[in-house]
What we know:
Elements: H1 12-19, H2 23-30, H3 38-51, H4 57-64, E1 69-74, H5 80-95, E2 99-104, H6 109-121, E3 126-129, E4 147-150, E5 161-162, H7 166-179, E6 185-188, H8 195-210, E7 220-221, H9 227-239, E8 246-249, H10 252-264, E9 274-276, H11 282-286, E10 293-295, H12 298-314, E11 328-330
Parallel strand pairs: 1-2, 1-3, 3-4, 4-5, 6-7, 6-8, 8-9
Antiparallel strand pairs: 10-11
Helix pairs in contact: 1-2, 1-3, 5-12, 7-8, 9-10
Amino acid sequence: MTDRFVGSRPKMTDVARLAGVSVATVSRSLAGSPLVTGETRERIEAAVRETGYVVNHMAQRLRLQESRQILALVPDIANPFFAEVLVGVEGAAHEAGFNVLIGNTADDPRRADLHARQLLTGGVDGMLLMNGRLPDVLLGKAHDGRLVAVVEPVPGKKLPTVEIDQRAAAGAATEYLAGLGHRRIAHITGVVASTVSDLRLRGYRDALARLGLAVDEHMIAAGDYTIAGGEHAMARLLASGERPTAVFCSSDETAIGAIKAIRAGGLSTPGDISVMGFDDIQIAAAYDPPLTTIRQPKRLMGAEGFRLLADRIAGTASSVRSEPLPFELVIRASCAPPK
Protein backbone atom coordinates (compact mmCIF):
# COMPACT_ATOMS: atom_id res chain seq x y z
CA MET A 1 0.00 0.00 0.00
CA THR A 2 1.41 3.43 -0.93
CA ASP A 3 1.80 6.18 1.64
CA ARG A 4 -1.09 8.21 0.23
CA PHE A 5 -3.58 5.55 1.35
CA VAL A 6 -2.16 5.06 4.86
CA GLY A 7 -4.69 6.11 7.51
CA SER A 8 -7.64 6.15 5.12
CA ARG A 9 -9.81 3.38 3.78
CA PRO A 10 -9.17 2.89 0.05
CA LYS A 11 -12.23 3.21 -2.17
CA MET A 12 -13.13 1.71 -5.52
CA THR A 13 -12.59 5.16 -7.05
CA ASP A 14 -8.96 5.01 -5.88
CA VAL A 15 -8.50 1.67 -7.65
CA ALA A 16 -10.15 3.03 -10.80
CA ARG A 17 -7.98 6.15 -10.83
CA LEU A 18 -4.75 4.18 -10.35
CA ALA A 19 -5.68 1.58 -12.98
CA GLY A 20 -6.86 4.24 -15.46
CA VAL A 21 -10.33 2.76 -15.88
CA SER A 22 -13.88 3.57 -14.85
CA VAL A 23 -15.42 2.55 -11.53
CA ALA A 24 -17.88 0.36 -13.47
CA THR A 25 -14.98 -1.52 -15.06
CA VAL A 26 -13.40 -2.11 -11.65
CA SER A 27 -16.74 -3.42 -10.34
CA ARG A 28 -17.15 -5.77 -13.30
CA SER A 29 -13.58 -7.05 -12.95
CA LEU A 30 -13.92 -7.76 -9.23
CA ALA A 31 -17.18 -9.60 -9.94
CA GLY A 32 -15.37 -11.83 -12.46
CA SER A 33 -17.12 -10.46 -15.56
CA PRO A 34 -15.82 -11.94 -18.85
CA LEU A 35 -16.31 -8.49 -20.45
CA VAL A 36 -13.07 -7.27 -18.86
CA THR A 37 -9.91 -8.08 -20.86
CA GLY A 38 -7.00 -9.89 -19.29
CA GLU A 39 -4.69 -6.87 -19.57
CA THR A 40 -7.23 -4.57 -17.93
CA ARG A 41 -7.91 -7.12 -15.19
CA GLU A 42 -4.18 -7.33 -14.41
CA ARG A 43 -3.96 -3.52 -14.05
CA ILE A 44 -6.95 -3.51 -11.73
CA GLU A 45 -5.54 -6.33 -9.60
CA ALA A 46 -2.23 -4.48 -9.32
CA ALA A 47 -4.10 -1.34 -8.25
CA VAL A 48 -6.04 -3.34 -5.65
CA ARG A 49 -2.79 -4.64 -4.19
CA GLU A 50 -1.19 -1.20 -4.16
CA THR A 51 -4.13 0.54 -2.52
CA GLY A 52 -5.02 -2.29 -0.14
CA TYR A 53 -8.64 -2.08 -1.29
CA VAL A 54 -10.94 -4.72 0.26
CA VAL A 55 -14.05 -5.86 -1.59
CA ASN A 56 -17.29 -5.18 0.32
CA HIS A 57 -18.92 -8.58 -0.12
CA MET A 58 -22.07 -7.53 1.75
CA ALA A 59 -22.77 -4.72 -0.68
CA GLN A 60 -21.99 -7.05 -3.56
CA ARG A 61 -24.47 -9.61 -2.24
CA LEU A 62 -27.17 -6.96 -1.81
CA ARG A 63 -26.76 -6.02 -5.47
CA LEU A 64 -27.13 -9.68 -6.39
CA GLN A 65 -30.11 -10.02 -4.02
CA GLU A 66 -28.47 -12.83 -2.07
CA SER A 67 -27.01 -12.87 1.42
CA ARG A 68 -24.91 -16.08 1.27
CA GLN A 69 -26.30 -16.70 4.74
CA ILE A 70 -28.62 -19.38 6.06
CA LEU A 71 -30.56 -19.61 9.31
CA ALA A 72 -30.67 -22.74 11.47
CA LEU A 73 -33.68 -22.81 13.80
CA VAL A 74 -32.84 -24.84 16.92
CA PRO A 75 -35.23 -25.63 19.80
CA ASP A 76 -32.47 -25.61 22.44
CA ILE A 77 -28.96 -24.43 21.64
CA ALA A 78 -27.73 -25.71 25.01
CA ASN A 79 -28.60 -29.28 24.03
CA PRO A 80 -25.31 -31.02 23.11
CA PHE A 81 -27.05 -33.06 20.41
CA PHE A 82 -27.97 -29.94 18.42
CA ALA A 83 -24.54 -28.45 19.03
CA GLU A 84 -22.97 -31.34 17.12
CA VAL A 85 -25.52 -31.11 14.32
CA LEU A 86 -24.66 -27.41 13.99
CA VAL A 87 -20.95 -28.24 13.72
CA GLY A 88 -21.83 -30.30 10.65
CA VAL A 89 -23.95 -27.49 9.21
CA GLU A 90 -21.25 -24.86 9.72
CA GLY A 91 -18.47 -27.00 8.26
CA ALA A 92 -20.36 -27.69 5.04
CA ALA A 93 -21.56 -24.08 4.80
CA HIS A 94 -18.05 -22.72 5.26
CA GLU A 95 -16.75 -24.87 2.41
CA ALA A 96 -19.51 -23.50 0.18
CA GLY A 97 -18.90 -19.86 1.14
CA PHE A 98 -22.01 -19.45 3.31
CA ASN A 99 -22.38 -18.05 6.81
CA VAL A 100 -24.67 -19.69 9.35
CA LEU A 101 -26.95 -17.76 11.69
CA ILE A 102 -28.41 -19.68 14.64
CA GLY A 103 -31.90 -18.97 15.92
CA ASN A 104 -32.55 -20.45 19.36
CA THR A 105 -36.32 -20.75 19.67
CA ALA A 106 -36.38 -22.14 23.23
CA ASP A 107 -39.50 -24.01 22.01
CA ASP A 108 -41.28 -20.63 21.82
CA PRO A 109 -43.28 -20.13 18.56
CA ARG A 110 -43.02 -16.34 18.93
CA ARG A 111 -39.25 -16.49 18.97
CA ALA A 112 -39.31 -18.82 15.97
CA ASP A 113 -41.41 -16.24 14.08
CA LEU A 114 -38.99 -13.44 14.90
CA HIS A 115 -36.07 -15.44 13.57
CA ALA A 116 -37.95 -16.66 10.50
CA ARG A 117 -38.75 -13.10 9.38
CA GLN A 118 -35.16 -12.96 8.12
CA LEU A 119 -36.20 -15.24 5.26
CA LEU A 120 -39.00 -12.82 4.35
CA THR A 121 -36.71 -9.77 4.41
CA GLY A 122 -33.88 -11.40 2.47
CA GLY A 123 -31.56 -11.47 5.45
CA VAL A 124 -30.98 -15.17 4.78
CA ASP A 125 -31.25 -17.24 1.61
CA GLY A 126 -32.75 -20.30 3.28
CA MET A 127 -33.55 -22.03 6.57
CA LEU A 128 -32.86 -25.32 8.29
CA LEU A 129 -35.71 -26.32 10.60
CA MET A 130 -34.60 -28.47 13.54
CA ASN A 131 -37.68 -27.95 15.66
CA GLY A 132 -40.21 -30.05 13.73
CA ARG A 133 -42.56 -27.19 12.89
CA LEU A 134 -42.98 -24.41 10.36
CA PRO A 135 -42.97 -20.92 11.95
CA ASP A 136 -46.40 -19.34 11.77
CA VAL A 137 -45.03 -16.31 9.94
CA LEU A 138 -44.19 -18.55 6.96
CA LEU A 139 -47.58 -20.27 6.73
CA GLY A 140 -49.16 -19.62 3.34
CA LYS A 141 -45.96 -18.07 2.01
CA ALA A 142 -44.17 -19.45 -1.06
CA HIS A 143 -40.90 -20.20 0.71
CA ASP A 144 -40.95 -24.01 0.90
CA GLY A 145 -38.28 -24.08 -1.80
CA ARG A 146 -35.82 -22.55 0.65
CA LEU A 147 -36.55 -24.80 3.63
CA VAL A 148 -35.07 -28.13 4.75
CA ALA A 149 -35.98 -30.09 7.89
CA VAL A 150 -33.17 -31.70 9.87
CA VAL A 151 -33.55 -34.32 12.64
CA GLU A 152 -37.33 -34.01 12.77
CA PRO A 153 -39.86 -33.89 9.91
CA VAL A 154 -42.41 -31.08 9.71
CA PRO A 155 -45.92 -32.62 9.80
CA GLY A 156 -48.08 -31.72 6.82
CA LYS A 157 -45.23 -30.24 4.78
CA LYS A 158 -43.44 -31.99 1.92
CA LEU A 159 -40.01 -30.69 2.83
CA PRO A 160 -36.69 -32.42 2.24
CA THR A 161 -35.88 -34.07 5.56
CA VAL A 162 -32.55 -35.32 6.88
CA GLU A 163 -33.19 -37.89 9.60
CA ILE A 164 -32.68 -41.46 10.71
CA ASP A 165 -35.53 -43.95 10.88
CA GLN A 166 -36.52 -43.01 14.42
CA ARG A 167 -39.15 -45.71 14.72
CA ALA A 168 -36.78 -48.47 13.61
CA ALA A 169 -34.01 -47.18 15.90
CA ALA A 170 -36.31 -47.21 18.92
CA GLY A 171 -37.40 -50.72 18.00
CA ALA A 172 -33.77 -51.85 17.80
CA ALA A 173 -33.06 -50.39 21.24
CA THR A 174 -36.06 -52.12 22.79
CA GLU A 175 -35.28 -55.44 21.11
CA TYR A 176 -31.71 -55.29 22.41
CA LEU A 177 -32.99 -54.98 25.99
CA ALA A 178 -35.41 -57.85 25.40
CA GLY A 179 -32.55 -59.88 23.94
CA LEU A 180 -30.72 -59.53 27.26
CA GLY A 181 -33.71 -61.20 28.92
CA HIS A 182 -35.69 -58.15 30.10
CA ARG A 183 -39.47 -58.40 30.04
CA ARG A 184 -40.42 -55.36 32.16
CA ILE A 185 -39.06 -52.67 29.84
CA ALA A 186 -40.12 -49.10 30.57
CA HIS A 187 -39.88 -46.09 28.27
CA ILE A 188 -39.27 -42.43 29.08
CA THR A 189 -40.49 -40.32 26.16
CA GLY A 190 -39.28 -36.99 24.86
CA VAL A 191 -41.39 -33.83 24.62
CA VAL A 192 -45.03 -34.91 24.22
CA ALA A 193 -45.73 -32.69 21.19
CA SER A 194 -42.58 -33.81 19.36
CA THR A 195 -42.88 -35.90 16.19
CA VAL A 196 -39.56 -37.59 16.99
CA SER A 197 -40.76 -38.49 20.49
CA ASP A 198 -43.92 -40.00 19.03
CA LEU A 199 -41.94 -42.04 16.50
CA ARG A 200 -39.67 -43.43 19.22
CA LEU A 201 -42.69 -44.34 21.35
CA ARG A 202 -44.20 -46.14 18.35
CA GLY A 203 -40.94 -47.98 17.79
CA TYR A 204 -40.96 -49.11 21.42
CA ARG A 205 -44.56 -50.34 21.10
CA ASP A 206 -43.78 -52.05 17.76
CA ALA A 207 -40.90 -53.98 19.29
CA LEU A 208 -42.91 -55.17 22.27
CA ALA A 209 -45.67 -56.33 19.93
CA ARG A 210 -43.20 -58.23 17.74
CA LEU A 211 -41.79 -59.90 20.83
CA GLY A 212 -45.22 -60.87 22.13
CA LEU A 213 -44.85 -58.63 25.20
CA ALA A 214 -47.83 -56.67 26.49
CA VAL A 215 -47.54 -52.89 26.64
CA ASP A 216 -48.02 -51.72 30.22
CA GLU A 217 -49.06 -48.05 30.06
CA HIS A 218 -47.74 -47.61 33.61
CA MET A 219 -44.28 -48.35 32.19
CA ILE A 220 -44.41 -45.26 29.96
CA ALA A 221 -43.44 -41.92 31.52
CA ALA A 222 -43.28 -38.50 29.89
CA GLY A 223 -39.90 -36.78 29.78
CA ASP A 224 -38.51 -33.77 27.94
CA TYR A 225 -35.05 -34.85 26.72
CA THR A 226 -33.34 -33.22 29.74
CA ILE A 227 -31.46 -34.67 32.72
CA ALA A 228 -34.01 -33.20 35.14
CA GLY A 229 -36.90 -34.56 33.07
CA GLY A 230 -35.35 -38.02 33.03
CA GLU A 231 -34.78 -37.94 36.77
CA HIS A 232 -38.38 -36.97 37.52
CA ALA A 233 -39.81 -39.50 35.05
CA MET A 234 -37.70 -42.33 36.50
CA ALA A 235 -38.75 -41.40 40.02
CA ARG A 236 -42.39 -41.73 38.94
CA LEU A 237 -41.71 -45.14 37.41
CA LEU A 238 -40.04 -46.35 40.61
CA ALA A 239 -42.97 -45.13 42.68
CA SER A 240 -45.66 -46.62 40.43
CA GLY A 241 -45.52 -50.18 41.75
CA GLU A 242 -43.73 -53.05 40.04
CA ARG A 243 -40.45 -51.54 38.96
CA PRO A 244 -38.95 -52.14 35.50
CA THR A 245 -35.75 -54.11 35.03
CA ALA A 246 -34.80 -51.94 32.06
CA VAL A 247 -35.70 -48.53 30.69
CA PHE A 248 -35.32 -47.17 27.17
CA CYS A 249 -34.86 -43.38 27.24
CA SER A 250 -35.53 -40.95 24.39
CA SER A 251 -32.18 -39.18 24.84
CA ASP A 252 -28.83 -39.64 26.54
CA GLU A 253 -29.52 -36.72 28.87
CA THR A 254 -32.78 -38.39 29.86
CA ALA A 255 -30.84 -41.60 30.52
CA ILE A 256 -28.37 -39.78 32.77
CA GLY A 257 -31.28 -38.32 34.73
CA ALA A 258 -32.85 -41.78 35.03
CA ILE A 259 -29.61 -43.21 36.45
CA LYS A 260 -29.51 -40.40 39.01
CA ALA A 261 -33.02 -41.33 40.18
CA ILE A 262 -32.13 -45.02 40.28
CA ARG A 263 -29.14 -44.27 42.50
CA ALA A 264 -31.22 -41.97 44.70
CA GLY A 265 -33.57 -44.90 45.23
CA GLY A 266 -30.72 -47.05 46.52
CA LEU A 267 -30.48 -49.08 43.32
CA SER A 268 -27.77 -49.45 40.70
CA THR A 269 -27.30 -49.44 36.93
CA PRO A 270 -27.04 -51.94 35.37
CA GLY A 271 -27.19 -54.19 38.45
CA ASP A 272 -30.84 -53.49 39.27
CA ILE A 273 -32.08 -51.54 36.25
CA SER A 274 -30.50 -51.37 32.81
CA VAL A 275 -30.67 -47.97 31.06
CA MET A 276 -30.58 -47.39 27.30
CA GLY A 277 -30.00 -43.90 25.88
CA PHE A 278 -30.45 -42.31 22.46
CA ASP A 279 -28.24 -39.93 20.38
CA ASP A 280 -24.72 -40.83 21.60
CA ILE A 281 -23.70 -37.34 22.68
CA GLN A 282 -20.09 -36.97 23.81
CA ILE A 283 -20.77 -37.45 27.52
CA ALA A 284 -22.47 -40.81 26.84
CA ALA A 285 -19.13 -42.61 26.58
CA ALA A 286 -17.61 -40.76 29.56
CA TYR A 287 -20.50 -41.20 32.00
CA ASP A 288 -20.43 -43.82 34.78
CA PRO A 289 -21.56 -46.28 33.64
CA PRO A 290 -20.86 -45.53 29.96
CA LEU A 291 -24.21 -45.48 28.18
CA THR A 292 -25.44 -48.09 25.77
CA THR A 293 -27.26 -45.94 23.24
CA ILE A 294 -28.41 -45.33 19.68
CA ARG A 295 -25.92 -43.27 17.72
CA GLN A 296 -27.28 -40.70 15.32
CA PRO A 297 -24.78 -39.38 12.71
CA LYS A 298 -25.15 -35.85 14.05
CA ARG A 299 -22.52 -33.99 12.05
CA LEU A 300 -23.45 -35.83 8.88
CA MET A 301 -27.09 -34.84 9.42
CA GLY A 302 -26.08 -31.20 9.65
CA ALA A 303 -23.82 -31.35 6.60
CA GLU A 304 -26.43 -33.16 4.49
CA GLY A 305 -29.08 -30.69 5.61
CA PHE A 306 -26.97 -27.78 4.40
CA ARG A 307 -26.19 -29.46 1.07
CA LEU A 308 -29.87 -30.09 0.40
CA LEU A 309 -30.65 -26.47 1.26
CA ALA A 310 -27.83 -25.15 -0.93
CA ASP A 311 -29.19 -27.17 -3.86
CA ARG A 312 -32.65 -25.70 -3.30
CA ILE A 313 -31.27 -22.16 -3.07
CA ALA A 314 -29.38 -22.73 -6.34
CA GLY A 315 -32.46 -24.28 -7.97
CA THR A 316 -30.72 -27.61 -8.59
CA ALA A 317 -32.58 -29.80 -6.09
CA SER A 318 -33.61 -33.11 -7.64
CA SER A 319 -35.95 -34.52 -4.99
CA VAL A 320 -38.18 -33.44 -2.14
CA ARG A 321 -37.16 -36.07 0.39
CA SER A 322 -33.85 -37.76 1.11
CA GLU A 323 -33.27 -41.34 2.23
CA PRO A 324 -32.92 -41.89 6.01
CA LEU A 325 -29.34 -41.88 7.28
CA PRO A 326 -28.02 -44.96 9.11
CA PHE A 327 -28.13 -45.30 12.89
CA GLU A 328 -26.00 -47.54 15.08
CA LEU A 329 -26.57 -49.41 18.34
CA VAL A 330 -23.55 -48.65 20.54
CA ILE A 331 -23.12 -51.23 23.30
CA ARG A 332 -21.39 -50.03 26.46
CA ALA A 333 -21.89 -50.80 30.17
CA SER A 334 -25.28 -49.42 31.22
CA CYS A 335 -27.24 -52.52 30.16
CA ALA A 336 -26.94 -56.10 31.40
CA PRO A 337 -29.16 -59.19 31.77
CA PRO A 338 -31.70 -58.94 34.61
CA LYS A 339 -30.91 -60.55 37.93
